[in-house]
Amino acid sequence: MSIAKEVNNRLDELLNIRAEIKRINNDLEDGQVLNNVTDGTQTNKEGVIKIAEAMIDQIKNDLNEITNNGKNITGLYNNEYYVNDMLQDKIIVENNLLN
User: Fold this and answer.
1) Mean pLDDT score, 38-54
2) What predicted TM-score, i.e. pTM, was given to this entire model?
């Protein structure tokens, strides 16, 4: 897997966890008790958010390791062809051919 794909996968994980934290904040009451699925212990909303924040910290550490603290991805995302929209790619190529 390329560095760009690894970074994108980790960033997707990060966004999913942050979305889940927002959902938890909206859906759960502060005093609500939940069961931890990994070890069966009981926790509350704050405990769940702490676990999610620890997962975010781990993803950040993974990103730093994958990218060598950002040194391995210099210029990776400012490539004008790095666009997830195929139509946009076509327009860029056509503009370059006209110039």
Assistant:
1) 89
2) 0.69
